[in-house]
Specification:
The complex is a heterodimer of chains A (about 160) and B (about 200). Chain A has 6 helices and no strands. Chain A has helices at about 20, 25-40, 45-75, 80-115, 120-145, 150-160. The longest helix of chain A is centred in the middle third of the chain and has 34 residues, at about 80-115. Chain A starts with 17 loop residues before the first helix and ends with a helix. With about 200 residues, chain B is an all-alpha fold. Chain B is about 70% helix and about 0% strand. Chain B has helices at about 5-10, 25-45, 50-60, 65-95, 110-145, 155-180, 185-190. The longest helix of chain B has about 35 residues, at about 110-145. Chain B is elongated and about 60 Å long. The two termini of chain B are about 25 Å apart. Classes of the chains: A mainly alpha (about 160), B mainly alpha (about 200).
Chain lengths: ~160, ~200
């Protein structure tokens, strides 16, 4: 197997890519929900279209996010304290991929039957989705900001056997 | 800021140098960047719509040109609103940063210069995003109200240039975390010689 040449953050490229791709999942899911809720109460049907396309982008981006996430998790120096958070983040990531795509598909069905209305059941499910994305954001942030995955001083310290 | 000045604030700071576990600024950044970039991309998609029509037909997906411009407009407004909070949280966390002063980033910049550029850049970008929102609003509601192409070419060009600036700016910000370990709990513990 050819070996990758890793930098001092344990990556074959300058900075982690996963956190960049997740912009387009986090922002799009949140904003889609925001548009649905505002559209529902103000009867601004334009916002439903905005919401749909945001979900559409999110379901495309989430696959790339999971792939890069798996890759970068594999290259991270994982120590015992961080293991459970990483496991939870991984399982939730894959579940979210299925969930986001499923909900987007449902959204497409709703849009095809009546683009001017959004059923309250959809709002309920997307509320649940927003909560899960928020949890996932927390777990992912914890891996970087608390456990220091791919953070230079931490990677270097671990190489020296701290 | 030096530790004596930080202590004067009387905040109860954790090991990461913040009064809370996870920095807020990087989370808000997801929203600023995601919304802004998708806003511009959908305006580009709306502009090039005649070229994409066959793709949507192939995918059996209903797409309306004005819908793309709606995404461009509302996402941009969302980005402009949230960015005030992103910049405010960024400044708060920048003030509490206390990194080791003797290192250089991958770009050969010192910690202080990276922080300074990222801080000033944030204010500059907030200004541009707000100005672009006003510009976009004028196009949408006055200048190009009845035009099938709602945005000017110059607007799209500025948008694409902004991608480049955001990339540089974002990388500077990323370096503050991933190279200097600012507000990273594990890095701060390593610095103090703990495990």
């Amino acid at each position: 197997m050819p070996t990758l040449s890793l930098n001092n953050q344990n990556l074959p490229y300058p900075d982690p890519i996963h956190p960049i791709i997740v912009h387009f999942v986090i922002a799009m899911v949140f904003f889609s929900f925001f548009c649905d809720v505002v559209g529902y109460f103000t009867r601004n049907v334009r916002l439903f279209e905005v919401s749909f396309w945001n979900m559409f982008v999110a379901s495309g981006a989430i696959f790339l996010a999971v792939i890069f996430g798996q890759f970068e998790a594999g290259l991270a120096n994982i120590y015992e304290a961080a293991q459970s958070t990483l496991n939870f983040h991984t399982v939730l990531g894959w579940s979210l991929a299925a969930l986001v795509v499923g909900i987007t598909a449902w959204r497409l069905v709703i849009r095809n039957s009546n683009p001017l209305k959004i059923p309250p059941a959809y709002l309920g499910v997307s509320t649940f989705l927003v909560c899960l994305v928020f949890l996932q954001l927390y777990l992912g942030s914890k891996l970087f900001w608390v456990y220091g995955f791919h953070v230079k001083p931490v990677v270097e310290a671990m190489k020296q056997g701290v | 800021m030096n530790s004596q000045l930080i202590n004067q604030l009387g905040l109860r700071l954790g090991a990461n140098g913040l009064p809370y576990e996870i920095p807020i600024h990087p989370s808000l950044v997801h929203l600023t960047l995601g919304l802004f970039i998708i806003a511009i991309l959908f305006d580009i998609a709306g502009t090039l719509f005649p070229l994409e029509r066959s793709i949507f037909k192939f995918l059996n997906l209903t797409a309306i040109r004005s819908g793309f411009f709606d995404v461009g407009w509302y996402n941009l407004v969302g980005a402009a609103c949230i960015t005030f909070f992103t910049v405010a949280a960024g400044f708060f966390e920048l003030l509490l940063a206390n990194p080791p002063a003797n290192q250089k980033s991958a770009w050969g910049l010192s910690v202080g210069l990276t922080m300074l550029l990222h801080g000033l850049g944030g204010v500059f970008l907030l200004g541009i995003i707000v100005a672009m929102t006003v510009w976009r609003g004028l196009q949408r509601y006055y200048w190009r109200k009845n035009a099938s192409r709602q945005v000017q070419w110059s607007y799209l060009l500025v948008g694409v240039v902004m991608f480049g600036i955001l990339f540089v700016h974002g990388t500077l910000g990323g370096q503050l975390g991933s190279e200097f370990g600012i507000h990273v709990t594990a890095a701060e513990l390593v610095k103090e010689g703990k495990n």
